[in-house]
Structure prediction request, 430 residues.
Amino acid sequence: MNPTLSPISLAVATEQSALSPQTWPFSVSLLPQQAYLVGGSVRDALLRRQADYLDLDFVLPERAIATAQAIAKQYGAGFVVLDPDHQIARAVFPNATVDFAQQVGPTIYSDLHRRDFTINAIAYSPHSETLLDPLDGCADLARKTLCMVAAENLKDDPLRLLRAYRQSAQLGFRLDPATQQIIRSLAPALGGMAAERVRGELDCLLSLAEGSALLGLAWQDGILQTWLPEVEVDQLERLATLDQLAAQYHERWPAYSHLLHSWVKEQTTPGLHRSWLKAAKLSQLLPADLVAAEATLVRLKYSRAEQQVVLSMLKGWHFLRQHQGEKLLPPGQQYQLFKIAGAAFGGVALLGLAYGLPEGLILPLVERHLTPDDPVAHPQPLITGKDLVQGLALKPGPKIGELLEAVHLAQAEGLVTSRADALAWVKQRL
Prediction:
């Protein structure tokens, strides 16, 4: 390993990449001479991976928080201290997030030797336009191999064990055999990590088509068992089936594909992934019992909104499975299915297809779900509780809700189509 600075061809690596200060939202002159860009942004630039949103990490020999604050103030950017003890702060720009950290150890070399994988232990000096690669990370980039820096580094932060599979999926890299063996030996340590951090890595893997195979590998290596002890190999194999089906419908039915990949309507922070496809895949890693499934979601600290999405999907799938022998569900049962699944029906349909239900049963239901004014999938109320109280002299109470639900069902079955029909139908029923 060569601990010296080595020049690089900037025309290849820096043009329109994170290694080019011209793409940064602040002037490089504000950084001290011994500042280094490190981590994923350097790695991705060398791999020529482009990103619409810059995520930069700088290591400074001193005054990291003060430098971040000064830059944020000069450019009117957001500023937050992430870790006062370790001198880590963040400046948030409209098109970039920039972290500034105090180097760990007396030199940049010691800092790089504390990192997780060699491909993330490459530093770039913007002032001298040179790379520092003491652990031969560039060679591992060329070999498309994820190799640990040291076993002790993985042991110090066991989340890195799961991150190995996530980064392999993101980059299309293979795991170095020696690294994989160390990960297997340290696997139980992942059980001591904060649930939020584990969930974040799991979310990333579930959100990548390549992540399904890596989740299977992580399971084989004993990584998943501490958090998902009931997962079986057939469940993991079904993840790949869901990915394959989603890819097929991307070509055959773009509207359905767009639905599967659209975000669940929930406020999230950057990096958290919310899509119906991801929710469908997550549902397959849970116990079959709904109470146990909810307990697992709670343990992994999923938000209440996403818990409800996944559980609605499972309830809808359970209902659909009960009628899987039928060629076409009658309108009343379709209405019940759409009501149970709600907005998550697109995922329910994908699960049905993954389990082998015929397209002739599933695709007409998807068409209904994709039609905003469909009277079965999205019924518009013909009457309200006020109509029943005032028009039929009924007393407020639970009976009103029961009658309105009965009207919805009658509407789905085509028995009523207007307000007058609905009132007459209720009067007759009474």
